[in-house]
Amino acid sequence: MLTENLIKTARDRIASAHSITVLTGAGISADSGVPTFRGEGGLWKQFRAEELATPEAFESHPEIVWEWYHWRRQIISEKRPNPAHEALVSLENACPSFTLITQNVDGLHPLAGSRKIIELHGSLWRMRCMRCGRITEKRSLELPRLPHCDLCRSLLRPDVVWFGEAINPLHLKKSLEACQGGGVFLVIGTSGIVQPAASFASIAKEHGAFTIEINRVDSEIADRDLLLIGRASEVVPQLIHANH
Ligand code: APR
Quick one: CA torsion of 7, 9, 14, 20, rounded to 10 degrees? Predict the structure, then answer.
């Protein structure tokens, strides 16, 4: 059970912050029923990441990789944002200097109404042409088993960042800028294992931010000033809505 004074400290820090940057991971969507990657029931417990989430895997068997993404799109198409996603939209509307950096590709933050968002690892709902690079967004599930580009007819891939691939340089630049604004840095529902996101809290702290982590258990995130143990969907609204 979280002590009231921990929540109050976090809430006061957020309420008085001139700038707020938030980093989210799969844990924020767990309460929407979206499987996380690690921990109990995690995707990497059921599937081998190197066989599904790498450029080499897609090169050698694109149909199997697309089948996995079609399955993930199907599962996530039935899920809705939870109170944690919604609380971050309220926070974005209340704080002029706000940036949300998400590692999640489930699209639940934009669906909840987040606009000042960097989808660092891409999105399940976007596809990119392997040849001409054209990006299309399609939330409908009616997709061919192996989608092809309307323009050049080449094979499309999911517009997500796979293991071994670089983050979009513009997304990285904007994320690092958002980590250097001081104020408050909130880390929600990430194991803090995958770089570069895992280092963002330390960078924020080096630039004077007060760092607050919300997780169900301890994580690898270093340099946090406050650790609030609990479900994101229960804790995050308490930090943002005074009447909680
Ligand atoms: N509330 C808060 N935190 C939660 C909840 C919850 N209800 N449920 C789980 N968590 C926490 C777990 O304790 C864990 O620390 O969320 C974290 C999920 O960790 P991961 O499954 O490793 O997900 P994430 O940190 O987002 O992974 C980062 O790894 O596989 C890649 O690209 C993929 O973006 C992903 C990246």
Answer: -100
pLDDT score, position 244: 46
Which residues participate in catalysis according to the annotation? 121
Q: Which residue CA neighbors atom 15 of ligand 1 most closely?
A: 191
Residue nearest to atom 25 of ligand 1 (CA): 190
Do 182 and 236 lie in a common domain? yes
Could you tell me if 129 and 205 lie in one domain?
no
What does each C-alpha distance from 218 to 102, 108, 187, 222 come to in angstroms? 19, 24, 12, 10
pLDDT at 3: 77
Each residue of 48-104: pLDDT tens digit?
Answer: 888 899 999 999 999 999 999 999 999 999 999 999 999 999 999 999 999 999 999
Regarding whether 216 and 171 lie in a shared domain, the answer is yes
Two structure tokens written together for 61: 């068997």
State whether 16 and 87 are in the same domain: yes
Q: Does ligand 1 lie within 6 Å of residue 40's CB atom?
A: no
